[in-house]
Amino acid sequence: MTIPHEVRDDDSPGHGPLVAPAAPQLAPAAGPSCASPPGPVTGLPGGLPVDELADALQRWTHRPGLAVDDVRCAPIRHRISAPTTRALTRVTVAASDADGPVTLSLVTKELQAARYGLPPQMPDEARAHLDTVIPWRLEAEAYASPAADRMPDGLRMPDLVAVHEQPGDRMTLWLEDVDPVDTPWTDDDHVRAAGLLGRLAARRAGDDRLLPRGGEFLTTYLRDNLLGWSGPLLCGDEIWRHPLFTLPSVAALRPDLTALAGRVDALFARLDGLPEVLCHGDATPMNLLRPRARPADFVAVDWGTATPAPVGFDVVPLVFGRAEAGTGDADESPRLLELAVPAYHEGLAAEGMEVPLETVRTAVVLAALLRYPSSSLPLEAFLGGAPVTDEAVARTVQRAAFVRMVLDLERDLPR
């Protein structure tokens, strides 16, 4: 039978942390598989041959006689925002051996070189440059790194079942389906996650650095985004004439954003000399799944921005990630910050890494100032000429509140 699965057009827009953002691509909602009449299984995500899938499942389950009888695939409803992610698919496998039938659930993540997913309006020179520095293979490298062996109790990576290399700078990761709960995160969830991330950072202190081709995340972000793209845009006049940027709450940000652009080098210099740790890079609540079987634990997924960074860097997406994505209120982040920083600090100390609490907090706020305000407004609407809809206005007002909140955190930093 031919297995249907979601495939995003190679040239459809997407964005990562280093590029001009385009509208996220929303994969279709998962629905019933369009199963064909019985016959050979074909059309697996990424083109994985069924015999290779069977071999991988035998290794994963420790059942050497396991045979694949049927496969059902459904696209995962997910906002694809990284140019290196082509598709996410949930795969249900019916298999059997002498011990009887078994149903296995996996998730495939199809990765690709950044050039396939960058915005089509991007100039060729910029596209070629970003294609060389955005590390599309980094997630696979992270799963193969010692990080999985460093995880403290309560935190882990998903099982990597198979990796299928494809021509043209593409690969597909076959991962355990974590089957996460979808209940809202509590304050206790944030505190537990922060403590575990602190423990993990300390445990990885002696490991080799997983270094993206372009350099550490903040260094690359500073060069390619803040100084090369978003900063110059926000310091000009034209963008502030766009209808979304004339909204009162957005226009009021202009003096502070232009001033921040002038202080980028100084803020970055303050991070120099702080302890460096190995980070997940995007440890948002959306990437720390709580498995239904053990909802008090976390499974860390989406390691595509793993990076060396100043201590505390993983706290940034943990406490700001929901508000940035629009799934949480901006007002929640300062409160979560006061809970998560001490928990992360305690996690470091529990593993023998002594860093002053105020140093961790300063590093987190500085990283947030560099990461969010200059790129959280809808710069893509100005570049791409998207229509100004009621939805776009509402989202822009929400983003403006988020930017205002992050900017205000600087007032409490020690001078």
Automatic annotation (TrEMBL):
Superkingdom in the source lineage: Bacteria
Transmembrane domains' residue ranges: none
Low complexity compositional bias, start-end: 16-34
GO MF entries: transferase activity
Source species: Goekera deserti
Domain Aminoglycoside phosphotransferase: 212-330
Protein name: Phosphotransferase
Gene3D superfamilies assigned: 3.90.1200.10
